[in-house]
Write a structure and sequence with these properties.
Number of helices of chain A: 7
Strand order of the largest sheet of chain B: 1-2-3-4
Distance between the termini of chain B: 68 Å
CATH class of chain A: Alpha Beta
Oligomer: heterodimer
CATH superfamily of chain A: NAD(P)-binding Rossmann-like Domain
Structural class of chain A: alpha/beta
Strand order of the largest sheet of chain A: 1-2-3-6
Number of domains of chain A: 1
Number of helices of chain B: 6
CATH architecture of chain A: 3-Layer(aba) Sandwich
Order of helices and strands of chain A: EHHEHHEEHEHEH
Radius of gyration of chain B: 21 Å
Number of strands of chain A: 6
Helix content of chain B: 25-40%
Strand content of chain B: 15-25%
Largest interface: A-B, 82 and 78 residues
Shape of chain B: elongated
Structural class of chain B: alpha/beta
Chain lengths: 199, 176
């Protein structure tokens, strides 16, 4: 009886949380254990292109195939975890910072994120794209990260146009899960929308 | 001229912000522990509140919830979120598919979805996180199928979505 359900179109959606802050090609891969919230280390040769872009492209294409095969009535929601800095070209001073101050690995990081964003936004009517662009992600049980988080809060508070306010991992998770069932949610969600949806 | 000054000033402040961030990261102060979604805390209380409410704030006896404009769904006795399927005239569990690499955000999202009654499939390099193995069984971890695999292979993702063959014994479709 249970096997009947294996082929039914009951997948609610896909959320893509694959990513890494410091890839192997940056030369700082071993420091990812500190930068990553879970302390994981990237594989040897792991790059933003291979981890972020390739996995997301695979998931998007698989989602399109799934939606077509099951003739879904509603578009399948697909939530991609991008970064606030991916929106720098639309922010005042963001392009200057990216072109003149950002290190090479950050530019490659953002390029991979933007490629996925473009593909997702142009995936067609079978997919409902949701792109979250969080800044720093923190949790209240890690007080050691508060100095960095506080600095971003201050930068955002004084009006720096290219510094978004950090969000808690719980708020972000709430917003991402709720975006699956809310058919009116589509496109880019920045910290304001993330916090609003998580309340 | 003023615009250029403003950009330079903004850049200086940005570097001032970035320095303590890098120092924090380099010093390794960020602990690798998991977010406290399953602990008795304020966030847990909020989670339970959300679990018992529908999007429009109305609940019915038996936890049958109605979503405006998105069709019906319910939470069954196993706290799985289910949708009505017109073909079999029954509620069937909704499944989430997650593709997680590093795990910090991914695990929080998995637990959040599981607490909301979704049946979650998580694909990551290491599969079930070691920290989860020691947790007391609860809706936040029993509704999650942790799979070890490589999302760089499209076939792994496609098989999860299409026929569940990749999922194998991990699939636990409950009869409503």
């Amino acid at each position: 009886m249970s096997h009947i359900f294996l082929c039914l179109p009951n997948h609610a959606g896909i959320i893509h949380c694959v990513g890494l802050l410091l890839d192997d090609a940056s030369g700082f891969g071993q420091y990812n254990r500190f930068a990553s919230g879970s302390g994981s280390l990237p594989d040897t040769g792991a790059t933003y292109d291979g981890i972020t872009r390739l996995t997301a492209f695979n998931a998007i294409e698989a989602a399109i195939d799934y939606a077509n095969a099951n003739n879904l009535k509603d578009p399948m929601p697909f939530c991609f975890t991008s970064a606030a800095e991916a929106g720098w070209p639309q922010m005042g001073g963001g392009s200057f910072v990216e072109n003149n101050l950002a290190p090479d690995f950050l530019r490659r990081y953002l390029a991979a994120k933007r490629e996925v964003e473009d593909k997702l936004m142009n995936a067609g009517p079978q997919i409902r794209p949701v792109i979250v662009r969080p800044s720093l992600i923190y949790t209240m049980d890690k007080p050691a990260s508060f100095p960095a988080v506080g600095a971003f809060f201050i930068g955002n508070k004084i009006g720096l146009p290219f510094v978004d306010r950090p969000v808690t991992v719980q708020s972000l998770a709430n917003a991402m899960v709720r975006s699956m069932s809310r058919t009116d949610v589509r496109g880019v969600l920045r910290y304001k929308e993330i916090n609003a949806m998580s309340e | 001229m003023m615009k250029r000054i403003r950009i330079i000033a903004s850049s200086a402040v940005y570097l001032a912000i970035g320095a303590p961030c890098l120092c924090t990261v380099a010093a390794g102060f960020v602990s690798p522990s998991l977010p406290p979604l399953t602990r008795t805390s304020r966030s847990q209380n909020r989670s339970r509140t959300f679990l018992s409410m529908s999007e429009n704030g109305r609940t019915k006896k038996g936890k049958l919830l109605v979503l405006g404009g998105t069709g019906e769904f319910c939470v069954n006795s196993n706290k799985q979120r289910c949708v009505r399927d017109q073909n079999v005239h029954a509620f069937i569990p909704q499944i989430f598919s997650f593709f997680v690499y590093s795990g910090f955000l991914g695990q929080a999202v998995c637990k959040r979805a599981a607490l909301d009654g979704y049946q979650v499939t998580s694909l990551s390099r290491r599969g079930r996180p070691p920290s989860v193995a020691d947790e007391t069984p609860s809706p936040s971890n029993t509704n999650i199928n942790y799979l070890a695999g490589d999302a760089r292979e499209k076939s792994a993702i496609a098989s999860i979505l299409s026929d569940g063959s990749y999922v194998g014994k991990c699939v636990d479709f409950m009869i409503i």
